[in-house]
Amino acid sequence: MCGLIVSKTLRDIRDIIESTSNRGTLSWTHSYLSCGALITDKYNECLSHDKLNSIFVDGDYNVIHTQSPTNKTYRPHPSKINGSFLWHNGMLLKHNKGSWDTEHIHNMILEDVRLLDAIEGSFACVWYENNKWKVFRNIMSPLYQTVCYNNVVISSVPVNETSAKIKPNKIYDMKTMFAT
């Protein structure tokens, strides 16, 4: 199982770390923008407050992807294809458009976003392309939106009583949280 957390500020993520600890403890990645380039660092340890305090980049989206993969062929997220990046939480029944499930979803949406309906399995995703952050999920995989301190936080688990599930089968621009 995996977990996703996306936030612009570290204070919003602190409480979520414990909530997502049951979604993956084997390894995790931290992705963020630096001078226009997406940087991803991989860690083979449990996600901790101390580590996050030392690496978090306030001001732009930070994507934390935790992992406890269900098979031996896991790969660090995100999937990278021609300047487009995708993080995935869930499990697919089959993936023939890539060597792993996240790459399969990524290839499908790059081919035609209407192909999301054809993907068999569960998925909740964060997608970065053309300087835009987007999120989407299907009915089987949860993804929540919470407003904390005037910042939208996206996570695999509810953060607090104001957390709302992102509606399935639509792609949302994270800046506005309106369907694209």
Q: What is the overall pLDDT average?
A: 83
Portion in strands: 35-45%
Q: Strand order, main sheet: write it out.
A: 3-2-4-1-10-9-11
The count of DSSP E runs of length 2 or more, i.e. the number of strands, is 12
Outline: globular
Total of helices? 3
The sequence of SSEs as H and E is EHEEHEEEHEEEEEE
Q: Which parts are unreliable, with pLDDT below 50 for 5 consecutive residues or more?
A: none
Structural class given helices, strands, pairing?
A: alpha+beta
Question: Quaternary arrangement of the chains shown?
Answer: single chain
> What integer value in Å does the Rg equal?
15 Å
Largest sheet: 7 strands, antiparallel
Question: In which range does the helix fraction lie?
Answer: 10-25%
Structure explained in plain terms:
The protein starts with a strand and ends in a 7-residue tail after the last strand. By secondary structure, it is α+β, with helices and mostly antiparallel strands. The mean pLDDT is 83. The protein has a seven-stranded antiparallel β-sheet, with helices on one face. It has three helices and twelve strands. It is globular, with a radius of gyration of 15 Å.
